[in-house]
């Protein structure tokens, strides 16, 4: 029995009026990305291909903060991170600090398949991408009018607050919405997870969050579960959140629901951290949880109807 | 009761003749770094300062593959990574892909103290270092004649093997010896861990190993233990090794000795991965373990004699 869940970020409601039309657009984007992964699972595709297809669709959708539509860093460029992991053999690919890779999750997959390294960053990652034949694009490709406007507004607030002192914009009051991710179990019992993000709007150039870090934002192991997180990345790094869920199952005998509940509702909330995660276990049970007002998400299990949720 | 352990890498014996004089130099370097950390713990210093002092000493020692004496990447430069973590409040600082920071662990500490981010890489990390007033140096500072010679030998073998095709040198047959790290428990029961490395000789530029990744190469939590790993970094990333030890204690009720033994002797060896780790738990018990021929290491506990070991 296959199972697939995706997310498009957890956080506060977007600042702009969240009209019915806008909500419908988010729901449509989630449904399309879910369908892209589900199509593969329906035809005996593997979990790894399914999470990659779903995340690629979310990267291409400018509504989400990954690939096209990524937020801008303090220096006004998009800097992208992604990771993907195969729970069958613990192969993993992680990439960060990209400026020219159209689909970061596809570069993460290429790193996974190559196998010589797990984690590549910056120019070295992009030079590997060229060798692997991936599509490179100008940084402008990622930047939508909405994100440019968000960036200008951030800069203006920063200038007003600091009388022009140049520091990172780093606005944690800005909703960190829009990181995307997917977790899947395929019909053969294989698990996989993938996550992709533009990070936090106004972030210091070079800042890497939890998304591309195996164990923090992304983890999969057929014996336990697959996890993708979203939210206040610094806290997910400190708590090694994705692997923490897997370890609760492996060493503590937790059910997936109890593991996620304790991790998100008790521990993270106790630390003052905001965010959420999606997870699927080896039997295909899906659990999603967030301690923020909203988390864009969708899921489907073989023979059941797909569900798209926001609140 | 304070406890401090350090390592200078796990792997095969160095390729060059391991003379008595050379072995004595390694032992002296380890003893000096241990003493640098111990001095602080003797005078009620905190675990965080102690691991930073020990790792700084190892970075400054050209025998070890961290700071001065780091191995060279495929493009002939030193690219440095480090992390440090405070087990009291889970504050952490991680830096990667540095080319001009004299003591990477000190930049990691500055990131930890700043607190706005956990993980900074590349030019953005070095720009943060300038703002924090850290010493920047030419890349040549790191490169010793021994490392230059190792690099030329690697290039020659690569050219002979590939008839000049340009690929990363990436030689896993090259002993990955020399990553450095420290773990400490201070008299007040606080735990901390730090790790610093130049990575693998001939690595693809941009490759980040486990050392700077919180949860993989470095982790500390007062409730469980502090861990620093060394060895085949790609496998430590996939197994989230440092946090795995902590999770075995937290969720599985393992003793530190059993946790480390199962992780290194059974799991990692089973996966075909080579390396080792040092760990200290909340009661000050020190455990070091490696599945490689050697691991440079030293440790001391309050009121006991210091020990330096290689085999």
Cα radius of gyration of chain A in angstroms: 18 Å
Secondary-structure arrangement, i.e. CATH architecture of chain A: 4-Layer Sandwich
Helices and strands of chain A, in order, run as EHHEEHEHHEEEEEHHHEEEE
Q: Kindly name the structural category of chain A.
A: alpha+beta
What kind of assembly state do the chains in view correspond to?
homodimer
Name the chain pair whose interface involves the most residues: A-B, 48 and 48 residues
Could you give me the name of the CATH homologous superfamily of chain A? (Glycosyl)asparaginase
What characterizes the major β-sheet of chain A? 8 strands, mixed
Number of strands of chain A: 13
Low-pLDDT regions of chain A: 164-175
């Amino acid at each position: 029995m296959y199972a697939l869940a995706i997310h498009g970020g957890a956080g506060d409601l977007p600042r702009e009026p969240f009209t019915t039309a806008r909500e419908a657009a988010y729901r449509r984007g989630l449904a399309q990305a879910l369908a892209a992964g589900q199509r593969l699972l329906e035809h005996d595709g593997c979990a790894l291909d399914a999470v990659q297809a779903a995340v690629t669709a979310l990267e291409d959708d400018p509504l989400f903060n990954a690939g096209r539509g990524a937020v801008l860093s303090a220096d006004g460029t998009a800097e992208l991170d992604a990771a993907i992991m195969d729970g069958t053999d613990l192969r993993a690919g992680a990439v960060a600090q990209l400026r020219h890779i159209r689909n970061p999750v596809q570069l993460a997959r290429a790193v996974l398949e190559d196998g010589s390294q797990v984690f590549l960053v910056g120019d070295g990652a992009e030079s590997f991408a060229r060798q692997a034949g991936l599509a490179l694009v100008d940084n402008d490709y990622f930047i939508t009018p909405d994100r440019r406007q968000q960036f200008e507004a951030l800069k203006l607030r920063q200038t007003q607050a600091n009388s022009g002192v140049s520091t990172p914009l780093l606005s944690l009051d800005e909703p960190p919405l829009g990181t995307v991710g997917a977790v899947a179990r395929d019909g053969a019992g294989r698990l996989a997870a993938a996550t992709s993000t533009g990070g936090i709007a106004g972030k210091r150039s070079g800042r890497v969050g939890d998304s591309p870090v195996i164990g923090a934002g992304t983890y999969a192991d057929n014996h336990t579960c697959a996890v993708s997180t979203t939210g206040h990345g610094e806290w997910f790094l400190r708590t090694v959140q994705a692997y923490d869920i897997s370890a609760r199952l492996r060493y503590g005998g937790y059910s997936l629901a109890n593991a996620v509940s304790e991790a998100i509702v008790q521990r993270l909330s106790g630390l003052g951290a905001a965010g959420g995660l999606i997870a699927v276990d080896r039997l295909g049970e899906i659990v999603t949880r967030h301690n923020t007002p909203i988390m864009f998400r969708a899921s489907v299990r073989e023979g059941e109807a797909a569900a798209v949720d926001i609140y």
